[in-house]
Amino acid sequence: VTGAGSGIGLALSHAFAEAGCSVVLADVQVDALEHAAHGVAEHGVDTLAVRTDVSSGESIDELVQSRLDRFGAVHIVCNNAGVSGAGDPWLGPIEGWEWTIGVNFWGVVYGIRAFLPHLIASGGGHIVNTASMAGLYPGFAPSYEASKHAVVAVSESLYNSMQAGMMPIGVSCLCPGWVRTGILDADRNWPAALGELPAATASSEVTRNYVRRAIDEGTPPAAIADMVVDAVREDRYWVIPHDDFLEIAMERFHSIGERRNPQPPDTTPGMPPREQLMAEVMEAMMGEAAGASED
After folding, report:
1. How far apart are CA 221 and CA 218, in angstroms?
2. Model confidence over 54-111: pLDDT tens digits?
3. Residue from 144, 159, 210, 237 carrying the catalytic annotation
4. Number of neighbours of residue 135 by Cβ within 10 angstroms
5. Is 144 a catalytic residue?
6. Is this model's pTM higher than 0.90 or not?
7. Cα separation of 111 and 57, whole Å?
């Protein structure tokens, strides 16, 4: 399980341990990883904690080797690690995109490519890729949404390939809405190699504050993890916990079928009406512009 130090990854680790699985926990944040591994081991299963940067293919290869050295075969892989992005997507440093795509997209690709041969050699298994409802419709964070749309596409292509090749490998794609995690604080693990953390704008902070509230009031990660375990047992591809978000995604696809220009929904679950949100964003932008002119 990547991203196992907190949030959905930690909940997945506990859920699979409760099901009797040995668990390898991977995360870039060492203190959170060690604490998570200690808690998961209390289920009475074997655990292994491996510090892993999923944006690095070499780091993923080391994770695979550590797994094989300790346990041999591998049966379930959860490519779960993710970050929310950083900085203004259009005018800010490109490093914000590089970080988000590196973790959210390349982390999944590296995980699939590194583990798939061993899943096949083990006689079968299952891959779970954590996408998001942001992978089914865009709304607030372009780099995050682009990465999650890519995860959905990669996951479906992988599923189709395994089916066409009659491989004994199941694939599930997790697309949750608001879940009570610390993803908005993911920049605590901003890599020094990318330079200084891009600054947030006043306008982006307006949306971010509402998103934080929605996340804080979101579904507990344990409930999401239980759905994932059920999907693995039932060999089910889609794991979509939030029907209200799904309705918005379906409306988007209907509008595509009618070739209509994009139109964001008037309301998004957990958020204020779009008209109110846009008014607050504009007010923040004007205040930011006024402050800049005074400087």
Report:
1. 9
2. 999 999 999 999 999 999 999 999 999 999 988 999 999 999 999 999 999 999 999 9
3. 144
4. 25
5. yes
6. yes
7. 8
